[in-house]
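Q&A log
Question type: sequence-to-structure
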Amino acid sequence: MNILISSDSFKSVASSEIVNDIIGDEIKKLQPDSEIVRVSVADGGEGTSKALSISGGYEIHHLNTVDPLRRDINLSYYVNETQKTVILDSADTIGYQLLKSFERKPIITSSEGLGRALSIVFDRHEEMDVICALGGTATIDGGKDAMSALGFEFRDFEGNYLSRGGGSLPGLSSLSYPESFDYLASRKVKILHDVLNPLMGKSGAAEIFGPQKGARTGEIEFFSLGLKNLARIVSMTTGVDFVDKPGYGAAGGICILFNGILGWDMYHGAPFILDWLGYDEYLKWADLVITGEGCFDLQSLSGKITGEIIKRAEKAGKKMIIISGRGSEAIHGFPVFNIDPPEEQAPSSLSEFEEKLRNCIRRLSRELWTLRKS
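Response status: OK
Response body:
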């Protein structure tokens, strides 16, 4: 049996590559004669730049920037000199996985580090296209601080600069462009968003993703007000009626400024990445597809990489198994195997995760044999 393994990362515990290797290693023990291919995937969140770089010809570069609390960090990114392309992940500089749980406070966490990183990339690689993966950020500042690092000015009603973080957005009164605006807007930048949520509303950036970034229940409405105010200022500044596009809710609202002001092109990360990797060709070869993520649920089918893989596997008529961290049930008739029972704590270390994942693969061995015979 030809088995294609392409799991997403399990956030803050194991990368897509590590998960795929563990699954593949355990299945090879259970079915030694199976042919196994592993394809690392991502959807615009953490691990995207590495997944895209596997296509070949990319070298790792480094730069100094800051994390969501403005502490100095070193960022790795990928450069292909032949294809004139740079790839970087926002999660590697402003991701919530960089913070301890008690540090996740979107009132003050800032996207400044991403703006600094882009500024350096633009200076170092003037003639290159840039792919910037947006997802997994610790911020709800609408990209205000990233744009400030690129020279834009955000002021309140009294003309004072806004403080960093999402907490100052309700007081935003004006947005000023830098002298370098034409240069920045002319850069060929593709921004990959990992979700299709809009900026505002019940499925917006604050309502859906605020809690995982550390926003308390009573703060959600405040952040929604700030993002709504940012949309109003963008409309006033551009003279164009604001349209809340799918994907504007990604990365704490960064796309509204990157796309709405600078005009950088937006791409839904999951299909972009699978097309980049030539995933449909792998599907033609496969008899069985195994994918997974930390928490597989209905939201996974709304723009995430797991949902995109499921959609393509269904279309190709392939058998499938889904591995989830916990609490998930079969969706669309595909069997789902949970690593943890709902009442247990999620693994806190890679060694604990590996042990639980290997046990999970052993539990699904009967399913593998059933699929093999069918």
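Response note: Residues 220-238 form the longest helix (19 residues).
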